[in-house]
Amino acid sequence: MFNKRTKIKNLLSAAETGKEVTVMGWVRTFRNNQFIALNDGSTNQNLQVVAALGLLNDETLKRITTGASLKVMGELVASLGKGQSVELKATSIEILGDSDAEQYPLQPKKHSLEFLREIAHLRFRTNTFGAVFRVRHTLAFAVHKFFNDKGFIYLHTPIITASDAEGAGETFRVTTLPLNNAPHDEDGNINFKEDFFGKSTNLTVSGQLEGELAAMAFSDIYTFGPTFRAENSNTTRHLAEFWMIEPEMAFYDIEDNMNLAEEFIRYIIQYAIDNNKDDLEFLAQRLLDEEKQLPQDKRSELGLIEKLEFVLKNAFERITYTEAIDILLNSAAYKKKKFKYDVEWGIDLQSEHERYLVEKHFKKPVIVTGYPEQIKAFYMRMNDDGKTVAAMDILAPGIGEIVGGSQREERLDKLTARMQKMHVPIDEMQWYLDTRRFGSVPHAGFGLGFERMVQFVTGMTNIRDVIPFARTPKNCEF
Ligand code: 4AD
Ligand code: MG
Questions:
Q1: CATH code for residues 125-170+205-465
Q2: Is 365 in the pocket of ligand 1 (CB under 6 A)?
Q3: pLDDT at position 428, please?
Q4: Lowest mean pLDDT among 11-20, 56-65, 218-227
Q5: How far apart are CA 261 and CA 249, in angstroms?
Q6: Of 74, 112, 197, 285, which residue has the fewest beta carbons closer than 10 angstroms?
Q7: Ligand 1: does its nearest atom lie under 6 Å from the Cβ of 238?
Q8: With a 6 A CB cut-off, is 452 part of the ligand 1 pocket?
Q9: What pLDDT score does 164 carry?
Q10: Residue 393 CA to ligand 2 centre (angstroms)
């Protein structure tokens, strides 16, 4: 009769005393042979279970250790103790699974995030990761709700593809050819005709190109799936496997695109505030404690929740790439040679430049448009100046680039010219060009890096701490 249990979240929010209930969960702490803090993951709050003296024999008492799982029956009563309004007066306690106190790595004390990363299979049982992954869930749910309410179609784009949508050459190959004995063609190259798909294939870096195909029929679609990038970046904001949300809209220009992205980001933040207030308050306090170790000028100016509320209330700053370069060139940081990378028109903005714009200059999220065509993907629409494309990147405080998007090049001749210039294999992409041949329309879209968004909302500084099992260079545990 396991399904007769009540979840701790519901029990604590209803706080109906005098009721006979069954709860199940894992022991967080056990004090004075009497007070058990029990958690079942439904909320950050523990339920205080009181085992009256004499209820359990010595043998059972010894087995109530941190990490052990219990089934408890009893009566919910008003609590006299501090810290909770109700507690469970146990009438029976059954140990479902023991947890050897000598060996259990998660003792009730503060562990470093680095240590917890090594035991990622157990870290869900901590307050911090409980909060992070409940918020992650809520944000994912809000993504679907936002687009569903607007009539967007959720499109499942393929994980295995034969194209490199971003053209950055950072793909993971997918093959069943034997590594030590691959077949070769007459020219001595590996013969992918003999591979599983009869051609060279890789894991997708983005669902956008397939998304565009569907937008040319449904008008508005979005994808939300895993994407893979073999970029050797060992930073706090890069994963080799990350989740991306990519809406694609027909009859949209770059401005419509920016408006949707802003509305979308606000919506999912608001949804988390409305549904995970406890978790966010916990994470806000955690961040405050963590930042106490930093010098004053390195601490965040706003608390986590104030920062989120600020984003809800204030429009994002919108500037062009050219304006961004001018701001950087005129900055004290540039004049005092504080930037590691040089600044001139044409460079790809480095993370130090993005952070300067967002954290020092504007102190709010910034949307940068009109990037030089050389540094952006082939599908972006050429502007009338012939030098820049209708790209838009959204930069967020503490994170840097959180969204990358653009209006797409819908003019067949301009698109093929740009593909040629950028050595995109035109022959293999006739399916993509067909959308421009048959009823082409102005359209636009963007990609939001889901983990970066979760970082922004939870205040976690390392991206490895907002995905259950991180995949990064030289690391693929669990
Ligand atoms: O700017 P990106 O490369 O854009 C695209 O892939 C487009 N196809 C999106 C579109 O227009 N439909 O990636 C989009 C976002 C980035 O802004 C960033 O938030 C995230 O994806 N991202 C990563 N997140 C974690 N780890 C990585 N290695 C990431 N690379 C990109
Ligand atoms: Mg980008």
A1: 3.30.930.10
A2: no
A3: 93
A4: 11-20
A5: 12
A6: 112
A7: yes
A8: yes
A9: 84
A10: 7
pLDDT at 1 over 70: no
User: Residue 63 Cα, ligand 1 centroid: separation in angstroms?
Assistant: 48
Looking at residue 140, its pLDDT comes to: 98
Domains in the chain: boundaries = 2-109, 125-170+205-465
Share of the chain above pLDDT 90, in %: 93
Q: What torsion, rounded to 10 degrees, do the Cα atoms 370, 376, 382, 388 define? A: 40
Q: For residues 324 and 353, what is the distance between their CA atoms, to the nearest angstrom?
A: 9
* Ligand 1 closest atom vs CA 231: 28
The pLDDT assigned to 168 comes to 80
The token duo for 56 is: 């359990």
CATH architecture designation of domain 2-109 = Beta Barrel (2.40)
Q: Which ligand is nearest to the CA of 470?
A: 1
Which residues sit with Cβ closer than 5 angstroms to ligand 2, an ion? 404
Specify the ligand 1 atom closest to the Cα of 238: 26
Going by C-beta distance under 8 Å and a sequence separation of 6 or more, which residues neighbour residue 209? 163, 165, 379, 432
pLDDT the model gives residue 186: 93
Return the residue whose CA atom lies nearest to atom 4 of ligand 1.
404
The per-residue pLDDT for 150 is 98
For residues 106-127, average pLDDT: 94
* Residue 2 pLDDT level (bands cut at 50, 70, 90): low
**Model confidence, pTM:** 0.96
